[in-house]
Amino acid sequence: MIGSAIERTLVGPMDHTLPRNPGMPLALDHVEAVQANTSAIERRAATVFARRSVKKQWQAAWLLKAITLIDLTTLAGDDTESNVLRLCAKARRPVRADLLAALGVADLPIHTGAVCVYHSHVKTAVRALEGSGIPVAAVSTGFPAGLTPLPQRIEEIRASVGDGAQEIDIVVTRSHVLRHDWQALYDEIAACRETCGDAHMKTILATGELGTLRNVGRASWVAMMAGSDFIKTSTGKESINATLEFGLVMTRAIRAYEELTGFKVGFKPAGGIRTAKDSLAWLVLMKEELGDRWLEPDLFRFGASTLLADIERQLEFFSTGRYSAHHHHPMA
């Protein structure tokens, strides 16, 4: 039904040998030079989706693309092994088979970008996803506040990697940013990166707790200099999580860092991204600010737990002309 629109959107060329960001020595001149014009950033964010409209088969194709970029997440205090197993089953088959057939894409390898869980559920997720090619991401370093002693946070990373996590989402000490102690922030992130080894590291800045957009930009630079593979907006537990304003500041830092070093760093907005329309706005932002290369899962992820259900509802509407209830799209 969607034909070439989906083929071109989902099955594009991709460089699987992208070199990891090795980091660089802390360069305070670059950090201190960061500026943020709040009113201009707010105006630009307001136009991201207002100026762009993705309709019909192209919208369906973009929504299927969005599914492949989701870190399907469960970070609840009452998580159980059965919840995690259901989440992993959903990650393998994120869209109902009848919908994929109706869209004409039943043969395409559509699955989520990763599954994200607490350390205690890493082994369960690794077993459930064996052979799928879907990595397990573990939130670590005293998530979500990051206030446990650094040696304990380092041991948590080591334990998650030992249990099979291929990606580690760390949280930073917010006070380092608020006090502008960039050396302490750099040292902390660099120590985490060294412990991660071959596991890719996403550094969560907790942008809603950093005070200013300028602090967000500066923290982004320090995180990349310390060797982060991704920079991530939020834990999803803050009062303010992923916003397009934060996204603009962080993606422009990523662009400037690549211009300086030649290395690409990934980006992950997380928290509050619940609707298909939200996902389209973020995809537009990435395409306009960083280009098509950042529409692949090795450089862009959504951190989300409820987004997938709304995307499925939109795909069903495209296929049938009717909106379905959320319970028609169960976790598994």
Helix content: 40-55%
Identify the overall geometry.
globular
Average of pLDDT: 92
* Helix-strand makeup class: alpha/beta
Main β-sheet, spatial strand arrangement: 7-6-5-4-3-2-1-8
In total, the number of domains comes to 1
Instruction: Give the helices and strands as they follow along the chain.
Output: HHHHEHHEHEHEHHEHEHEHEH
What's the CATH architecture? Alpha-Beta Barrel
Largest sheet entry: 8 strands, parallel
Radius of gyration: 19 Å
Fold-level CATH name: TIM Barrel
Can you walk through the features of this model?
The chain has 332 residues and is an alpha/beta fold. It has a single domain (26-328), classed as Aldolase class I (TIM Barrel, Alpha-Beta Barrel), CATH 3.20.20. The chain has 14 helices and 8 strands. An 8-stranded parallel sheet has the order 7-6-5-4-3-2-1-8. Helix 3 (38-47) packs across helix 12. The two termini are 25 Å apart. Mean pLDDT is 92; it is low at 11-16.
What is shown here, in short?
The protein is α/β, with parallel strands linked by helices. The chain contains 14 helices and eight strands.
